[in-house]
């Protein structure tokens, strides 16, 4: 359970002794044996050190691979340690083929939980895969509320099972490349509901052979207005399938989806009655500041607490995002991210931030939905959001998979 601390007065000096020291807590780890048949030949699927296993303590993870002619094995995962409750709780019933509705804290990471069972089944089915190599229809559909989350999930699956054909579809870019990829045959489609509907209506995407459905961050699909699109997509899917739904909160619409479209789902609640649903490892500090003084202290706050690492500053308006970023640029490399920025510039900005070309990203809530930025050290809420759930989802952009993060 995170608590809110009052931050000490800020005095920027060159002495490390005057800086508040944050001592990370060593994470606990547990091993999980996976009930897979073992085959000795591996070649292609990197299991250790990839984003698919981002929830693991990598010092415990061996490097192992699998191909269409082998299956993921218990021996391949020997010593593998899971830190996240949702990974442990979801993985086994998912492997058993159960429909699942999982309420999990934002920022815990779920690709592993649904990725391993799906990749395992697609890998085992090598004979059918070969017969259907050309022009085959997708067997896996993953819905995500934002293009960033969709791209991240597709990237992790692609890097972990390169022999599977994966396609990521989302709006704001040309249809041509996405249509071409679908026409060549695909195993896994990951995308946002709006673009998926467009491709269904143009007859470029056919979902008649989907066997596995994943809805990731379902509550955020409601927040961005995708509820009708999601229901239309689910209506078009075969009734015989395995479905997994993940959500940080359970509004009535998400519960309705589960009742209508999931088959006797196993309910997994990893949040319980906690009012606060932040991921472990997030430490909150509060600073008393006026509207004028907070811009003055922002640069010092980042210098002292981020210590050269990545920082995300959240604002409520596009104007504030631009003005704060411009004010910071004189002392700290920063860029703004908001809804008026083109898709090309948005991707350029995010790639630059991920690669460390600048260390401060100033973003609005809408622009930041679905961001998955590794190694963020500091979050600053320049203005608090209007509701608790937005605060939780802001916080979920960091502190992912057990990382220790400060927030002001």
Describe this structure in words.
The chain has 408 residues and is an alpha/beta fold. The protein folds into two domains: 4-24 and 281-407, Rossmann fold, CATH 3.40.50.300; 30-269, Rossmann fold, CATH 3.40.50. The chain is built from 14 helices and 16 strands. The strands form three sheets. Strands 1-11-16-15-12-14-13 form a seven-stranded parallel β-sheet, with helices on both faces. A seven-stranded parallel β-sheet has the order 6-7-5-8-9-4-10, sandwiched between helices.
Please specify the SSE layout and strand pairing.
Layout: E1 4-6, E2 30-31, E3 81-82, H1 85-95, E4 100-103, H2 111-124, H3 126-131, E5 140-143, H4 147-160, E6 166-169, H5 175-183, E7 188-191, H6 193-201, E8 212-215, H7 218-223, H8 227-235, E9 242-247, H9 252-261, E10 266-269, E11 282-286, H10 293-306, E12 310-315, H11 318-329, E13 334-337, H12 343-354, E14 360-364, H13 365-368, E15 376-381, H14 388-395, E16 405-407
Parallel strand pairs: 1-11, 4-9, 4-10, 5-7, 5-8, 6-7, 8-9, 11-16, 12-14, 12-15, 13-14, 15-16
Antiparallel strand pairs: 2-3
Helix pairs in contact: 1-2, 6-8
Q: Which segments are poorly predicted (pLDDT under 50) over 5 or more consecutive residues?
A: 8-83
The CATH first-level class of the largest domain comes to Alpha Beta
What is the CATH fold-level name of the largest domain? Rossmann fold
- On the 0 to 100 scale, the average pLDDT is 71
InterPro entries: DEAD/DEAH_box_helicase_dom, DEAD/DEAH_RhlB, DEAD_box_RNA_helicase, Helicase_ATP-bd, Helicase_C-like, P-loop_NTPase
Family: Belongs to the DEAD box helicase family. DDX21/DDX50 subfamily.
Organism: Hibiscus syriacus (Rose of Sharon)
GO molecular function: ATP binding; hydrolase activity; nucleic acid binding; RNA helicase activity
């Amino acid at each position: 359970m995170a608590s809110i601390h009052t931050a000490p007065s800020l005095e920027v000096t060159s002495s490390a002794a005057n800086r508040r020291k944050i001592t990370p807590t060593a994470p606990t780890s547990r091993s999980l044996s996976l009930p897979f048949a073992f085959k000795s030949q591996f070649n292609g699927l990197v299991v250790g050190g990839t984003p698919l296993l981002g929830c693991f303590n990598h010092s415990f993870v061996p490097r192992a691979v699998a191909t269409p002619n082998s299956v993921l094995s218990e021996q391949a995962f020997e010593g593998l340690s899971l830190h996240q409750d949702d990974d442990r709780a979801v993985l086994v019933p998912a492997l058993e083929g159960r429909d699942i509705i999982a309420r999990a804290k934002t920022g815990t990471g779920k690709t592993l939980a649904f990725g391993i069972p799906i990749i395992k089944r697609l890998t085992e089915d090598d004979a059918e895969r070969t017969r259907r190599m050309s022009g085959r229809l997708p067997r896996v559909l993953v819905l995500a509320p934002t293009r960033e989350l969709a791209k991240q999930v597709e990237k992790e699956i692609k890097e972990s099972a390169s022999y599977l054909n994966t396609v990521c579809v989302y709006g704001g870019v040309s249809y041509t490349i996405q249509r071409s990829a679908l026409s060549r045959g695909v195993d896994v489609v990951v995308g946002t509901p709006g673009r998926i509907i467009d491709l269904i209506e143009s007859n470029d995407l056919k979902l008649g052979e989907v066997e596995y459905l994943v809805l990731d961050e379902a509550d955020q699909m409601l927040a961005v207005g995708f509820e009708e699109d999601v229901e239309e997509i689910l209506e078009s899917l075969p009734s015989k399938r395995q479905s997994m739904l993940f959500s940080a909160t359970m509004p009535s619409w998400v519960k309705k989806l589960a009742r209508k479209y999931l088959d006797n789902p196993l309910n997994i609640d990893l949040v319980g009655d906690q009012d606060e649903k932040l991921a472990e490892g997030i430490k909150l500090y509060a600073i008393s500041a006026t509207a004028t003084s907070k811009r003055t202290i922002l640069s010092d706050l980042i210098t002292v607490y981020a210590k050269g690492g990545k920082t995300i500053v959240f604002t409520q308006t596009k104007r504030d995002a631009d003005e704060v970023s411009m004010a910071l640029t004189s002392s700290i490399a920063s860029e703004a991210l908001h809804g008026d920025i083109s898709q090309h510039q948005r991707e350029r900005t995010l790639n630059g931030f991920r690669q460390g070309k600048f260390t401060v990203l100033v973003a609005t809530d809408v622009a930041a939905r679905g961001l998955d930025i590794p190694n963020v050290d500091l979050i600053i809420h320049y203005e608090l959001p209007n509701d608790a759930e937005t605060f939780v989802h802001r916080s979920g952009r960091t502190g992912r998979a057990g990382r220790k993060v400060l927030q002001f």
